[in-house]
Amino acid sequence: xxxxxxxxxxxxxxxxxxxxxxxxxxxxxxxxxxxxxxxxxxxxxxxxxxxxxxxxxxxxxxxxxxxxxxxxxxxxxxxxxxxxxxxxxxxxxxxxxxxxxxxxxxxxxxxxxxxxxxxxxxxxxxxxxxxxxxxxxxxxxxxxxxxxxxxxxxxxxxxxxxxxxxxxxxxxxxxxxxxxxxxxxxxxxxxxxxxxxxxxxxxxxxxxxxxxxxxxxxxxxxxxxxxxxxxxxxxxxxxxxxxxxxx
Length: 247
What we know:
Blueprint lengths: L8 E12 L6 E12 L3 E5 L6 H8 L7 E6 L2 E2 L5 H11 E5 L10 H12 L5 H10 L15 H13 L5 E5 L7 H18 L2 E5 L3 H4 L4 E6 L2 E7 L3 H9 L4
Parallel strand pairs: 3-8, 3-9, 6-7, 7-8
Antiparallel strand pairs: 1-2, 1-4, 4-5, 9-10
Helix pairs in contact: 3-5, 5-6
């Protein structure tokens, strides 16, 4: 078994299939997906409902194991690893941002941001922490609790929390789904800025063409298969492509 991958790709999926169930009731969620994501890139993954977007994210992030094929994360093969090993890999190499902000209401902004390091029993890189806080515009909010923040501010806290561990890749699953248009734009501007200024790798799963237009590359899934990719497309070009996917 190959355990490392010498490449600039932060994530690599090779011939990945994911099947749920058995026999006649089996559902093929991913069907032979081969994709790579380079360091410092911003990629959006789109597709109609049931196309395999969520399964793709779970498999790529090591949250779920593929039925067939291979996944590398930060150059490390995920196959054959125990759940404990996978948990450690995710903690060290992956940041997550979801539609639900998943902040702990009893903790301050500063405490929520530091939480991953505290749970891992690791020291916080203070210089990086200060940079993340400044980059996410939270310097004046560190003593506040989530209930005292707007939705956009809460998502900024979630992004800062995801970045504080220096992850190889930041996965965002519908990160602007609960936000209004103006706030969504602010959050996406922030993610774009993090890619451009710190070299962070970001993969966003979204149904919104306007959100996907912030990415360098848009990958389109349909029925568990990659059917197209577009480089630096406009929101209109993305929306047009989606209409031909049945989405």
